[in-house]
Amino acid sequence: MPYRGGGTKTGQAIQHVIDNTMKTANGARADAQKIVIVITDGRSQDDVLTPSIALRDSGAITFGIGIGAGVLENQIQEIAGDTSRAFIVDTFDQLSGVILNHVKQAVCYDVNECDTNNGGCSDTCVNTQGSFHCTCPENMILDSDLATCISNTTGQRAAFDECSVDNGGCSDGCVDTLEGFNCTCAPGFVLKADLLTCEDADECLDAMCSHTCVNTPGSYFCECPKEYQMSEDRITCTLRASEADCDAGFMPKGHSCTQQNNEALAYVPAEEACAAAGGRLMKIADSGVRQIMSRNYQGANFVG
Prior knowledge:
The chain is α+β, with helices and mostly antiparallel strands. The chain has 5 domains: 10-107, 3-Layer(aba) Sandwich (Rossmann fold); 110-153, Laminin; 161-199, Ribbon (Laminin); 205-239, Laminin; 247-296, no CATH class. 19% of the residues lie in helices and 24% in strands. It has 6 helices and 17 strands. The chain has helices at 10-21, 49-57, 73-80, 98-107, 267-276, 287-296; strands at 34-40, 60-67, 86-89, 124-128, 131-135, 140-142, 149-151, 173-176, 181-184, 189-191, 198-200, 212-216, 219-223, 228-230, 237-239, 250-253, 256-259. The strands form 8 sheets. The protein has a 3-stranded parallel beta sheet, sandwiched between helices. Strands 4-5 form a two-stranded antiparallel ribbon. A hairpin with a 4-residue loop joins strand 8 (173-176) and strand 9. The radius of gyration is 39 Å and the shape is elongated.
């Protein structure tokens, strides 16, 4: 409605909804619940009760929400028709919080499927929030239609594949069995106490690493202190070689010692020195690799 000034006329606005909005020509459907939420300053200068009653008589559910400090509580209750649908807040920001949840709870309600043809169940129908299921007397089980009870001649708990319905409720894998079903988890994950939901297995609880263990989703890895080095088994840390462990003329590198030659600083003499020692010289053309190797070997230009 266009704002024409002159004060608050909430009653007229509600009457406009009755005369126009709630008409089939304007989108109203017979199979849809009519819900009207009136947001106002709560100080209407006309009658709000009469049109509100007429609106509810037409089958609509009404909510009254007053915003601000000068709200008249009785007006909001007259618009809502019930205190459970009447709200007063200080600012518009509060509408998306508690008020929205209250509206949802009042509008949305569970339908009892068991009230209609016993939910299709041959025996007992059990209603749940948003759904239902059928159950059977002792010595009988549900057939594959999940509705008909049949005689249990094999000692099974059910005659159908539970995994075919919502994966049996399992968060990961579901395995059907003669007596029911089992949930399974991917490697590195275990079932929680509900036997349905998988959670990360903390492998570090088994103390597999010799030093530090770091748990990750579905796996783990071991870490070593800076003075240690990881072994090939990726579990055990061993002490790095120190200069005290190396003979004269050698320098520590990981778990081994490498010979250091400070005299053969050109390629040809370096190659000859390596050959004399029973080795061969590796020439590094890539500047990036050379920088890394040089740093690791304390500035040497050639590595034998």
